[in-house]
Amino acid sequence: MFGKKGDVSDHPATTLIAKGTRVEGELNFLGCLEIEGTVIGNVHSEDQKSRVRILHGGLLEGEIRVSDVVINGKVKGDIFAGNLIKLASKAVVEGNIHYSLIEVDKGAEVIGSFFLEQAHTNVSTFPAESQATDA
After folding, report:
1. How far apart are CA 75 and CA 90, in angstroms?
2. 66 within some domain
3. CA dihedral of 60, 65, 68, 71, whole degrees rounded to 10
4. DSSP string of 35-78, one letter each residue
5. How far is 114 from 103, CA to CA, in rounded Å?
6. pLDDT (tens digit, 9 = 90+) per residue, 19-29?
7. Looking at the domain assignment, is residue 133 inside a domain?
8. N or C: which end of the chain has fewer CB atoms below 10 A?
9. How many structural domains is the chain composed of?
10. Cα torsion 66, 69, 73, 74: sign
């Protein structure tokens, strides 16, 4: 019963920054991070199964370095998605997007450049901004 595969402890944790909440500073996490409030600072995860979701009404001002990124809110900063980035219809991004796979819904807005990168299991291995090339 305890410690068996499929146990609750095997599933990645979800952290929620709720509407009306403001967090300032660097955020490092494992599992999933959902932002409905405001985060001022960089968001990083070295977990290759990590995911950050910026929900409608959510705001992140800083750099994102996460495996999977889903945006339906606003991001002011560069995004480094090691695996996949999804821009939903209400997404607004002011910054460059580094990705290996991308999905963009009608209505999403990007003020910045797109850079196609090889898939990275560890987003900290992405090249620095100055070394990237246009795709």
Report:
1. 11
2. yes
3. 20
4. ESSEEES-EE---TT-EEEE-TT-EEES-EEEEEEEESSEEES-
5. 12
6. 999 999 999 99
7. no
8. N
9. 1
10. positive
Pair of tokens at residue 131? 């070394």
Cβ proximity of 108 and 86 under 8 Å: no
- Residue 128 domain flag: no
Structure letter (DSSP) for residue 13: P
* pTM of the predicted structure, to 2 decimals: 0.81
In angstroms, rounded to a whole number, what is the distance separating the alpha carbons of residues 44 and 56?
A: 20
- The answer to whether residue 120 sits within a structural domain is no
Tens-level pLDDT at each residue, the chain (135 residues):
444 554 444 557 899 999 999 999 999 999 999 999 999 999 999 888 999 999 999 999 999 999 999 999 999 999 999 999 999 999 999 999 999 999 999 999 999 999 999 866 555 555 555 344 444
On whether the CB atoms of residues 104 and 84 are closer than 8 A, the answer is no
Other C-beta atoms lying within 10 Å of the C-beta of residue 125 = 13
In 3D space, the residue among 114, 65, 110, 113 whose CA is nearest the CA of residue 90 turns out to be 110
